[in-house]
Design brief:
Elements lengths: L1 H15 L5 E9 L6 E10 L2 E9 L2 E4 L1 E6 L2 E8 L2 E10 L2 E9 L4 E10 L2
Antiparallel strand pairs: 1-2, 1-9, 2-3, 3-4, 3-5, 5-6, 6-7, 7-8, 8-9
């Protein structure tokens, strides 16, 4: 019985740890904001490491920094000029949702973000 439970738990963890590699699109909205900001990511996952690029569109992409995947949790950063974007996300199949912290020298904002895997 214990062996069966262990196998079921292992399969459940592996199912949640689906490979995120590919193109993802969506948007974020700064808390208190009145409009959505587009997001486009090209993820490459190798084990627990996430690399790739992200930005508002295909012509404005920035490298992913400190990308990590832990089960269904995804964490990474992107730096764009004076802004640092820190993502804390959760994957659920072909959908990702979570929070984003935007920081500059004189400003700090939070946002909610959602993305879908593109086919």
């Amino acid at each position: 019985m214990k062996k069966t439970i262990a196998i079921i738990l292992l399969l459940a963890v592996n199912a949640m740890a689906e490979d995120l590699s590919g193109k993802w699109s969506g948007e974020f909205r700064v808390d208190g904001g009145d409009h959505d900001v587009p997001q486009l990511f090209m993820f490459r996952q190798n084990g627990n490491t996430l690399t790739g690029t992200g930005g508002p569109n295909t012509s404005e992409q920035y490298p992913i920094e400190n990308g990590k995947v832990d089960g269904n949790r995804i964490m990474f950063e992107i730096t764009t000029g004076e802004w640092k974007f820190t993502y804390d996300l959760k994957a659920a199949g072909e959908r990702i949702i979570g929070t984003l912290e935007l920081r500059s020298v004189n400003d700090r904002r939070t946002a909610t973000i959602s993305m879908n895997k593109m086919k």
